[in-house]
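Researcher: I'd like a candidate sequence for this fold, 72 residues long. If you have to choose between options at a position, lean toward the conservative one.
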């Protein structure tokens, strides 16, 4: 799901950064540009980042990334 329309950042992009060791929101903003334009997405981006960190932290090496949905 797209979290930041201005920068085309998805929840998967955010999860990928969390899995690769990104530990704070300011660093996430630098890496992806999320919530640096209009700011409307900030709360959603912070929530997605916190969820990704809670799922795996920096030690998961990508194993916690959301899996693609299988067609019904």
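Model: Candidate sequence:
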């Amino acid at each position: 799901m797209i979290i930041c329309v201005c920068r085309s950042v998805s929840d998967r992009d955010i999860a990928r950064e969390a899995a690769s060791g990104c530990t704070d929101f300011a660093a996430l903003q630098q890496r992806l540009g999320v919530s640096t334009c209009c700011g409307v997405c900030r709360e959603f981006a912070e929530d997605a980042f916190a969820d990704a960190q809670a799922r795996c932290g920096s030690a998961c090496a990508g194993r916690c990334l959301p899996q693609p949905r299988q067609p019904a």
